[in-house]
Amino acid sequence: MTRLPLALLASLLFAFPAWAAKVTSYRLDNGMQVVVMEDHRAPVVVHMVWYRVGAADEPPGKSGIAHFLEHLLFKGTDDLGPGELSRIVRQNGGSDNAFTSWDYTAYFQRVAADRLDLMMTMEADRMRDLRMTVDDVATERKVVLEERGQRIDSNPGALFREQRGAAQYLNHPYGIPVIGWRQEMEQLNRDDAFAFYQRYYAPNNAVLIVAGDVNPDEVLALAQKHYGPLAPTPDLAPRARPQEPPQLVERRMTFTDARISQPYMVRSYLAPERDSGDQREAARLSMLAAVLGGDAATSVLGRKLQFEQKKAIYVNASYDGVSLDDTTFGLVIVPTPDTSMQDAEAALDRAVAEFIDEGVDAEQFARIKMQLRAAQIYQEDNIESLAQDYGEALTSGLTVEDVQAWPDLLQSITEQEVIDAARRIFDKRKAVTGWALPETEAAQ
Amino acid sequence: MTRLPLALLASLLFAFPAWAAKVTSYRLDNGMQVVVMEDHRAPVVVHMVWYRVGAADEPPGKSGIAHFLEHLLFKGTDDLGPGELSRIVRQNGGSDNAFTSWDYTAYFQRVAADRLDLMMTMEADRMRDLRMTVDDVATERKVVLEERGQRIDSNPGALFREQRGAAQYLNHPYGIPVIGWRQEMEQLNRDDAFAFYQRYYAPNNAVLIVAGDVNPDEVLALAQKHYGPLAPTPDLAPRARPQEPPQLVERRMTFTDARISQPYMVRSYLAPERDSGDQREAARLSMLAAVLGGDAATSVLGRKLQFEQKKAIYVNASYDGVSLDDTTFGLVIVPTPDTSMQDAEAALDRAVAEFIDEGVDAEQFARIKMQLRAAQIYQEDNIESLAQDYGEALTSGLTVEDVQAWPDLLQSITEQEVIDAARRIFDKRKAVTGWALPETEAAQ
Question: Which residue of A has its CA nearest to B170?
């Protein structure tokens, strides 16, 4: 990547249009939250329904049911045949999809703006009237098991990630994979799926996001027409998952697999997430990740380990604070061929310790803040990814105000705060350190 | 310990009285299992009620509630004031106690045999009619938190055990401590405790064990009188906890604490438990633990690591197959002062590998079998510990027949089976290896 001089970057930044999506938020009488983002530059609309339920809300022993149910949502209703929703979206020139995380399950369509009424008709229909036959369940269980086989079981990196996740969380269900443990997926049945559906798929547990070439009043009227009549789930308890006890000792693991060709190390530290009205520590950690592990040529770890010491061919730091409960701060190093894992890890630890001693470089920090502003503007420019951001945030305990406050919060973080946050987060007692090695190397 | 010549041991063994407790088992109409063990050598009786519920049956986020409820059971009923049950037992010259594990919660009294009617009156009373005030709950919560403070938080060995347990189980609630995680214990309330009590404290979830100077018919009549009228919990589902996914990678941890003076290593391997009608692998593992880690002078690990190589001041292998779900096989080594943890661990691994190559020493194996027979006879001689064994087994998925078959099953295990079981169990991918070090040592 070419390094732009700061002055040029700044001029580019201010050259961007000052366009920003207007975000309005309502709540229907049945408890459904409605968020509208106007963007009239193209005659399209993104229609999303986000449920405040994910894999971390599953009953014990039923792992995978949130994601399994996501599949079953395409099986049809009283009014829609199996697969018909997706077919209608395609026939109208649109695309649709769905995704499940630990904190949310979401369904969306992207289509011409004048088809919004049709999208809502179908999405509202499957919120409460899903048809779920024992046959559908049996068929779809095979599909998700096959998905697990392809995405996880045949992928050593994914298996390693699963085992590290389970070791990271001593008590919280974030340690359980979203797709589910195979032996539990094999037992998922219609009753489990239906109970989960009936409880959590309800307007008072959902966020509707409509983004694009729409008028907020019209969207609200349509939402009231389609989603307004749906019955909420009574006595829906606030979300509460088992939380972590004090983590007192680093967990280490060396994963070996013949299919791994390139050794690497991942360390994750338990980290606080963004809480509503209390996002500052998360903002510090975001800045820390950017300083340590952004662009290879200018980041602290990239400069020290790749360019100066030549210990690594890749190094990174990562943190995503959008999470209902405790998340992780990650470090990755891929050593050069003549560097052992032990050396690479020691070099990484040294680099982090030196960074804490040396402090944040002022020029790098100013550059990162500028790049963040630029990225934010790019982001605002993409209405679909902006809608995605709001959906994730609103189903992870944050508000529209929290999302809107975030960019300025990042800008307000000082160099000293980043160093202080680094001192707090790099506590190995809360860490899982994993080495991934080719089988031959482990045998030595 | 003195080594007895085999011939002498054998003669001692056959010199033991051929006494064995007669065990009879019934089931009341409301589903309560009744087990009677006759032993007329002393005019005492042990009266126990075992519930098929323990810490591993707790709802997520409510850790500690099974043990907390055990405390609340002494708070009184409609007919008994707080602490009155224990006071009456003492006034009658007896003793009483209770204990909670992952798989069971048990209450027992040891008292003169003619007081059995009184014991049953009180125990049956608190099975269904417990009084539980908000004040009782608040007071007792302080007590169990204090208990946690003393038994766990101020004990580095216990804290280390907790962290290892959490790392051992990726999915199963055996990874959660019986006493509970502090932050969850602090939230335990009357509603949680009462719901747990109402569901699980019921005759169809209980085993009554009466052992001592009693007549089975009279015990059955008394049981019918006191426990017979109690209502069972309808639709009590079979016990089913989340099971382990494949464990793919060893977890390692180094726990340092200033209060640790003697470094040591514990490794635990996930291991199959005794299943009803299918106890053979567990019997092999029991024999393996006895061969590897019994008496220091004759056991494989003791001989190699303590006596020959002088690498360890203590070494042990342990396995207890009485468990509803997967249990663990443990290895411990405490190195000599001039042996590093790394050397000690490598020596332990080598000793185990050599053992698998060398096979089981026939003379040692014969001696162990003889000692087991002797221990079994001692055990039978202690009616209280025998009752305890039955209680644990019957609340851990086993039957009276399984318990009775166990001693002969152990005797039938061959040397080759022990080696084969060793090959299966010592799979580091299913292991947690923990080093406990004084803080100074870790800082080096």
Answer: A166
- Three-class SS string for B150-216? HHHHCCHHHHHHHHHHHHHCCCCHHHCCCCCCHHHHCCCCHHHHHHHHHHHCCHHHEEEEEEECCCH
pLDDT of B4 strictly over 70:
no
Contacts of A190 (CB under 8 A, 6+ apart): A132, A133, A134, A137
Q: Tokens representing A140?
A: 């779809």
- Contact list in A for residue B181 (CB cut-off 8 A) is 171, 242, 245
Whole-number Å distance between alpha carbons of A410 and A375: 12
Instruction: Using a pLDDT cut of 90, give the percent of chain B over it.
Output: 88
Structure-block tokens of residue B241: 């906890």
Q: Mark residue A96 as left, alpha or beta (left: phi above 0; alpha: psi -120 to 50; beta: remaining).
A: beta
Residues of B recognised as catalytic: 70
Report the C-alpha gap between A429 and B256 in whole angstroms: 10
Is pLDDT of B356 > 90?
A: yes
Given CB atoms, is A258 within the 8 Å cutoff of chain B? no
Beta bridge partners, B435, equal B254, B265
Task: Give the confidence band of B13 by pLDDT, cuts at 50, 70, 90.
Answer: very low
Ranges assigned E (strand) in A184-285: 206-212, 251-257, 264-271
Cα separation, B303 vs B308, in Å, equals 6
B-chain residues near A181 (CB < 8 A): 171, 242, 245
For residue A375, count CB atoms less than 10 angstroms from its CB and return exposed for 0-12, middle for 13-18, buried for 19 or more.
Answer: exposed
Cα–Cα distance for residue pair B72/B74, rounded to 1 Å? 5
Residue by residue, DSSP assigns A132-193 as --HHHHHHHHHHHHHHHIIIIIT-HHHHHHHHHHHHH-SSSGGGS-TT--HHHHTT--HHHH
**B280 vs chain A: nearest CA distance in angstroms?**
24
- Residue B1 near residue B297 (C-beta atoms within 8 A): yes
- For chain B, what is the mean pLDDT? 93
B327 DSSP β-pair partners: B271
- Whether B444 shows a pLDDT value over 80: the answer reads no
List the single residue in A with minimal CA-CA distance to B239: A61
Nearest CB neighbour to B243, from listed A159, A170, A183? A183
Q: Taking 70 as the threshold, does the pLDDT of residue A137 lie above it?
A: yes
Sequence length of chain A is: 444
Enter the tokens of residue A230: 């749906």
pTM, two decimals, is 0.88
Is A184–B243 a contact, with Cβ atoms under 8 angstroms apart? yes
Q: What is the mean pLDDT of residues B113-122?
A: 97
pLDDT at residue number A295: 80
pLDDT of B17: 41
